[in-house]
Design a protein that fits this description.
single chain; 496 residues; alpha+beta; Thiol Ester Dehydrase, Chain A; 11-stranded mixed β-sheet; 9 helices
Length: 496
Amino acid sequence: MYVVLKTDEEKASNTKVEVPELVPITAEEHLEYSLAERRRNFRKNREKRVAEMTKESEAEHTVNLSPLHGGSALTFTELVLPTHTNHMGNTFGGQIMAWMVKGAKTVVWLHLRMSCAPKDGADDGRPPLGVGGVDRLQVEQLKDAFLQPVSVDTVHFKAPSRLGDRVLVTASVTRVFPSSIEVKVRVTSNSASTQDVPMEVNEGYMNFAVMRGPFHEPLTRHVTDVVPGTMEQDQEYRKAIARQDFREFRRMDGKRSQPSFESSCHQFSVDFDPESEKAQQVAVQCLSCILCLNDNATLRWERLITTTEGVEAWVEFGLRNTSSVSRLKVKATIKRSPSDCFRLLKDANSRMEFDVNCTEAEVILCCRNSADLVRMVMAPPPNDTSPTKRPKQELLVLRAYEEKPDQNVFILCSRSVRSDKRFPPRDDLQRTEVLPSGYIMEATSESSECTNLTFLGQFSQALFDMVQPHAMETVRRFKELLEKPSNESGGYAGAS
């Protein structure tokens, strides 16, 4: 997590820093966007939930303030050297984290040594069994043991440390659970110049499991629990069970929030209000996404076999990987100007003349000068030989376009939006989705009256299975419609 800080000018003017809203584009971004909102809600409600869980566990907990067996703890000091800092002289956050992990692991090993049963069977005053109700850990079992990180919980960076500071790391085992050991780590810093009161840098909780051997045999349940020796230790001990319950709740909720691809239709759409500023922002980002997708060198494309002259098609490598969006690319050279191609694509009423899968298309709302809202119905063509009968699917898309006549470049793209109150889905149709998809039209190097057309599509799997087999035929029809003279039967009257 990062925060935005004001500049000196903004502080003087007492203005609020405005952070632009992020509009997710790709399928992966949509998933992370929805999970990020959940994580934010967890962070906001964490202290309240932990406090409630702590109160619930207080009735079951008996305070044992025996100073003889206090929780395992250690403290060590590190000096911030030039290699530990960035160009501003602040200590790297990763370096602070490395020191925290070092302290946490060391204190766990210290606790493991203290937890081992005496070889002579003498009573050392500690619980006779491990936290899992089994025999205590033996010294011999530590020979091949190792620590496996389980989780890092709520590490808060509160202040920076700088070059030359003395950093004090304090780590203590707060509680041992049957499957993990929780450690609290606190980092403070003393300034090298002033030697003033230590400043708290950060604190957090880390969890480790004790394993042994190449087969990762779990040993954590053999470890004895800590016995609080002070009021502060007892407070951390009681809160630890609440933190553990909260981590488990968060983990299970995170699993439930992972949508399957087949049921994630709503994951690709963005909420849409034609009257808001967000409509224009979505349109601009949609155009930007198409250009970035066209220039993306990291995507791996596989060429499809084609017999259509002048038309080539590719699908993204890993076509059947339904954990991600399915992408399609088609290229063609058309003997018409880019502006003619753009006019035909923009004319929604003409869509059915060349699109094999489109049975209905209408502009239902104009959004300013460079965007409109379009409703389309997609269906398999009558001659579809696929053994799977696919139902008709409805699309509600925001269509954005950009015209650059001086450069002979035109872009038309669309993406699914959600506006169920104003434009609810039809009862007899299944609403499907597309991520930013569209056409880039630019003049060829040989002639301004000849167009290189590139179509880039990002579909849900169900729509991809319907569209992909007929994509080249759609582009062939589009090419044929434009290249026929307008005075001939079947020619496009809108061509210049």
